[in-house]
């Protein structure tokens, strides 16, 4: 059976995962409005993935004899200036989530709860992927920006 303390910590993470799902959905709506349908599609999938994380955590808490709860979910940001800003925020947010997962794992280690440690390692690995994916998109958008400027430079260079 899971301890009350770890149960509460996991319930806190369930709320955090749902907040992330809402953040990415909000970003999807912004991107779609701006005509970036591809990014919007990616972001909706990302949102669904966060909801799945919440399901998986709730499932685990229940399997260990605990009670899963959906706590208060605060409002998420609703507007950005450009896709680069959006994806920079995704990267920063995923880095924060990685720290949250690390703290959960520390709590499970402190209690000697091996099953919860094992459960959380999946999320530790998941965060490596999340951070790498987000930072990859940020890099690509930045390079696209440079390519566009380079093309403009070429156009002006041909002035007679
Ligand atoms: Mg997640």
In short:
This protein has one domain: Ferritin, core subunit, four-helix bundle (Ferritin, Up-down Bundle). The chain contains four helices and no strands. Helix 1 runs antiparallel to helix 2, helix 1 runs antiparallel to helix 3 and helix 3 runs antiparallel to helix 4.
Write up what this structure looks like.
- The chain has four helices and no strands.
- Helix 1 packs antiparallel against helix 3 (83-111).
- The longest helix has 44 residues, at 114-157.
- It has a single domain (4-156), classed as Up-down Bundle (Ferritin), CATH 1.20.1260.10.
- The chain is elongated.
- With 160 residues, the chain is mainly α.
- The protein is 81% helix and 0% strand.
- The chain binds magnesium ion (MG).
- The site of magnesium ion has 5 residues, from helix 1 and helix 2.
Write the topology of this structure.
Elements lengths: L3 H30 L3 H27 L19 H29 L2 H44 L3
Helix pairs in contact: 1-2, 1-3, 3-4
Descriptive keywords:
elongated, mainly alpha, single chain, Ferritin, 4 helices, 160 residues
């Amino acid at each position: 059976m899971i301890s009350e303390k770890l149960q509460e910590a996991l319930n806190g993470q369930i709320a955090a995962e749902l907040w992330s799902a809402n953040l990415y959905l909000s970003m999807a709506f912004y991107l779609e409005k701006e005509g970036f349908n591809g990014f919007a599609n990616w972001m909706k999938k990302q949102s669904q993935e966060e909801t799945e994380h919440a399901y998986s955590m709730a499932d685990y808490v229940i399997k260990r004899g605990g009670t899963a709860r959906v706590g208060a979910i605060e409002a998420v940001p609703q507007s950005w200036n450009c896709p680069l800003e959006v994806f920079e925020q995704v990267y920063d947010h995923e880095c924060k989530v990685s720290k949250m997962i690390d703290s959960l794992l520390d709590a499970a280690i402190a209690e000697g709860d091996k099953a919860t440690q094992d459960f959380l390692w999946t999320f530790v690995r998941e965060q490596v992927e999340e951070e790498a994916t987000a930072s990859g998109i940020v890099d690509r958008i930045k390079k696209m920006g440079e390519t566009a400027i380079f093309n403009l430079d070429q156009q002006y260079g041909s002035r007679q």
